[in-house]
Each structure stands twice: as C-alpha cells, then as structure tokens.
Design brief:
The chain is of the alpha/beta class. It is built from 6 helices and 5 strands. The chain has a 5-stranded parallel beta sheet, with helices on both faces.
Amino acid sequence: MASAKIAFLMLSDDPARVMPGMVMARRLKENRNAEVRVLFFGPSVRLASSGALDDAVNGLVESGIKPASCTALVDQFGLQKEYAERPIELLAAGAEVESWALNGYTVLSF
C-alpha cells in the first residue's frame, strides 16, 4: 500500500494556528508512515525563528521530518543567526512547492 504524500505549508505567525499542523504532520509520519514535508513561508518564517516552536520542530526532526524555511525570507528578515541555531533547512520555497505539485503531494496550509 502506498503512503500518503502530504505537505504542510505554514503561513501564520500565530502559534495557535501553526501548532495543530505541526502535530498533525508528526502524527501522520509516525502513525501512518506518510511522506511529510513542512515548509515555513511568509510570517511563519519569523515565528519559526523565535523559539516558540522549538519543541515542535525538534519533534518533527525526531520523527524523521526535515522542516524547512524559505531562504529568501530568512535573508530578507535578517534571521540567519536564529536559523543557524535550529534544525530547519533553508531552501527556495518556489522550487519546493513546485516539487510538491510535480510529485503528487496534497498541500495543507496553516
């Protein structure tokens, strides 16, 4: 049986909106063996650098998910130092989202 491919696009800067998506991403990976991607984009790039999501980010990493943030926004917001301290990959968001479309991922946004 094929596993689901689900991409979580984190957009909000409100932890109450982002956390449910992060919990769902981890549970889908651990309980359903889904192929999961997590990308912070827009305002959530600042949130991910703030420390407010560190426990949840570490939980994703422990479950085998490599969370990522948009490198252009990290640069634009001057958050390189904050990201150097976190296990969040930096990548080109446009190329990542295009890859999801080309590879059949269902995208959920939070």
